[in-house]
Design a protein that fits this description.
alpha+beta, 7-stranded antiparallel sheet, 5 helices
């Protein structure tokens, strides 16, 4: 089984993002890309960076949950997703999720995930016999835009957190 959502990624190294924010803007960029997917409008990442409470070391999951509720009011359901089956249900319904790699706060210091600490939009999956491949946008690098990549769920599962960001009027 395979599901891939048509999705336009954003780069955290975009010239419009303040230079001092770029290295830690992956959380706000991920949220902005998902909001752009749902709303069809571009949002200012610099303002979102401040409103979500992002710090120079990044955006903590609890801050994303709490502050997104504050800025979106009752328009969005934002919650941590605890099972990979629910993640797949959201993707099958055509809704991207925010996904965080975090080997530090998951106490997986010696693991070797694709990223040590990084938020990305999760836009699809492919079920294989021995693994689940996850399709993500990587939020770009200094000299290139965001691109789609695949990542092994099994190799990274201990450091992954998933957050649903879904308009309440969509089921």
């Amino acid at each position: 089984m395979k599901k891939l959502i048509a999705f336009q990624g954003l780069s955290q190294h975009n010239e419009a993002i303040l230079k001092k924010y770029r290295t830690s803007a992956c959380g706000p960029v991920t949220a902005a890309a998902i909001l752009q997917f749902h709303e069809g409008i571009e949002l200012g990442v610099n303002q979102l960076y401040r409103l979500l409470g992002t710090t120079p070391i990044g955006l903590f999951t609890w801050r994303l949950l709490r502050n997104f509720h504050k800025i979106s009011g009752m328009r969005y359901e934002v919650q941590k997703v605890r099972s990979i089956e629910e993640v797949k249900e959201e993707l099958l319904a055509g809704r991207p999720l925010a996904m965080k790699f975090d080997r530090y706060f998951t106490f997986q210091w010696f693991s070797k995930p694709l990223y040590s600490y990084h938020w990305v939009p999760l836009i699809g999956f492919k079920q294989e016999a021995d693994d689940l491949l996850l399709y993500i946008h990587d939020n770009g690098q200094k000299n290139r835009p965001s691109k789609m990549r695949t990542v092994s769920y099994l190799e990274n599962r201990k450091v992954l957190t998933f957050v649903k960001i879904k308009p309440k009027d969509r089921q």
